[in-house]
Amino acid sequence: MMMFSRDLSILNVMEPIVSNLFEDNYLKTNGLKCDCEKCQIDIVLLTLNHVPPHYTSSQAGEAYIKALYQEPQLQSDILRELTKAVQVIQERPNH
Q1: Its domain of life (predicted)?
Q2: Is the residue at 3 inside a domain?
Q3: pTM value?
Q4: DSSP per residue, 17-81
Q5: Which residue range forms the structural domain that includes residue 79?
Q6: Taking all residues of the chain, what is their mean pLDDT, rounded to a whole number?
Q7: At what angle do helices 72-91 and 14-22 cross, to 10 degrees?
Q8: How far apart are CA 37 and CA 67, in angstroms?
Q9: How buried is residue 33: exposed, middle or buried, by Cβ count under 10 Å (0-12/13-18/19+)?
Q10: Is there a domain that residue 7 lies in?
């Protein structure tokens, strides 16, 4: 197991990107049959499992990757996966 100093942390910047897109496109629009916390987490997790991770340990790296995801095509790729995840979880909730 690798040990890192406490000053460095590993971040998958897809987590905040997916969470923000989910919030903007589903939570703020009341677009869910069930918006309980369990369903919300399951939707975000299922989406994250279907988009490539992008890891960084620096704020500069995080800013660069977030800038990439302002591209309309990449956003639409994530939204497509989010939509699929919403359908799966809403049809078969895990609560």
Answers
A1: Bacteria
A2: no
A3: 0.84
A4: HHHHHHIIIIITTT--S---HHHHHHHHHHHHTTS---EESSHHHHHHHHHHTTSHHHHHHHHHH
A5: 17-91
A6: 88
A7: 70
A8: 28
A9: exposed
A10: no
